[in-house]
């Protein structure tokens, strides 16, 4: 389990997080929600040590983050960032980079690495695109390629920062179904999402954030039905049932 | 109706990727090696005194001797061709590394202060009245490497971000150029003495001057070819590279230092051949793609052949006069580079 206590960070002297507390339970889908600029990405970046400095306590599996090397952290947590470069390489070779944490100089891939990479490509549904250049793929396929690279890292935890942004509806569903499948396999998934319907449908645990602080956390329905959600986003929420289950709708 | 099967089986994914990779790499390497070899043979055989392939072969197997052909081969053509091959390979690999590390197609060894540092050191050396070839070579190497260290240390203050490295390089280059002009203003002879160095060429190359630089270049190119994964992971972006366990600042600064050592070693005997480190990586990338495992060895071979051809032409075009290679390289490289830009899809590099 990843645990965050009293996390404070700043960029160029400007405080971004003001004492965030959060727990991301093992084998569950945890989702961070909140308005733009409330510190969701900074929180997950802090876990990956991607922010210049922070105070507070972050522990991964009970071990303080300070005691984990960058390489060991990469064997525990994979991170699919919000902004993604489009390097001029094939999907297969990019997914191979997911094995980077496991290779020592001069970094020759072993058969085991290739097997894991091929499994990751299949799991992401990219068999037909393995030899295609990333720049020749659609946004959804590129997203899957980054996802496959994260899978090739073979970690217990995968963090996805807005994985459905820029994807069409079908690809959004595919991405979320994929996350669910990974969670069912025992992986801990941490996501940042803006789609409340997806949050309700897929999240096991939700953390609501505002202005660099965690406001509320709990089960998806519990958090989304709370008045805090309406206050934080400045909207009204409503719920209705169909044969598929509970749905949420939003009004200004 | 026949339905086309477009899906790949699990086994096919593996085989196609590996086989395509291996075949592509081998073909690229062979074509590059052939170009460099052809350029080297032409560079040795052609010149003021022509040398047939038979004479070349006999001079090669008989070793250094008293005959004119042996002397020309061992003491004139071979060092010069070797220098062209080494300078081309070293500068091309250095430029490729810098462009990859900074994700900037306009980057070249000049952007991290190599040329300005070497230029200042040589001007200072000449200004102080030290004109020996060893001193000038040493000063050029030290100037190139130290100026890069300066750029990297400036960038380290801001976690060695790509932009800071480029801006730091621009600032350091401006300072060093101003210092060079100051030296030349106070000691006008320094401008005349360092002219050959600033233009770049191979007319003054000899075996003794080449050897230390050759060791650095060969070792540097081999080392760079073992670090292709690092270059490719770095090009995924800082956050992704860090999340894959890379110590980004350390690797970026290390790669820039390697690029500076390579370019510094080349500059020490060839002077400032600014264009090679910019144009050859572009051509190599256009032909062979951006993946470093293919790109670096191919750029090295392409650079080696390109500089050899330019040097050969600089000796031949106005024979018996010789045009400095750096001038011819800019004459040829400039229009070719413009052609490359115009023919690039979408006009982007």
Largest interface: A-B, 43 and 34 residues
Order of helices and strands of chain B: HHHHHHHHHHHHHHH
Helices and strands of chain A, in order, run as EEEHEEHEHHHEHEHEEHHEE
Q: How many structurally independent domains of chain A? A: 1
CATH-defined superfamily of the domain at 92-274 in chain B: ABC transporter involved in vitamin B12 uptake, BtuC
Shape of chain A: globular
Tally of contiguous helical segments of chain B: 15
Summarize model confidence as the mean pLDDT of chain B: 82
The CATH topology of the domain at 92-274 in chain B is ABC transporter involved in vitamin B12 uptake, BtuC
Instruction: Return Rg of chain B in Å.
Output: 22 Å
Low-confidence stretches of chain A: none
Global outline of chain B: globular
> How many separate helices of chain A?
9
| Structural class category of chain B | mainly alpha
State the low-pLDDT regions of chain B, or none: 1-9
Short description:
Chain A is built from nine helices and twelve strands. With 252 residues, chain A is α/β, with parallel strands linked by helices.
Any overview of this molecule?
The complex is a heterodimer of chains A (252) and B (349). Chain A has nine helices and twelve strands. In chain A, 33% of the residues lie in helices and 30% in strands. Chain A has helices spanning 40-47, 70-76, 91-96, 111-123, 139-152, 169-184, 196-202, 220-224, 227-233; strands at 2-11, 14-24, 29-33, 54-60, 63-64, 77-80, 157-161, 188-192, 205-210, 213-218, 236-242, 245-251. Chain A has one domain: P-loop containing nucleotide triphosphate hydrolases (Rossmann fold). A six-stranded mixed β-sheet of chain A has the order 6-7-8-3-9-10, with helices on both faces. In chain B, helix 3 packs across helix 14 (292-316) and helix 13 (276-288) crosses helix 14. Chain A binds chain B through residues 45, 48-50, 52, 69-75, 77-79, 81, 83-85, 87-90, 92-94, 97-98, 100-101, 103, 105-107, 114, 118, 121-122, 127-128, 130-131, 153, and chain B through 6-8, 10, 13-14, 16-18, 20-21, 103, 159, 226-227, 229-230, 232-233, 235-237, 239-240, 242-247, 285, 289-291.
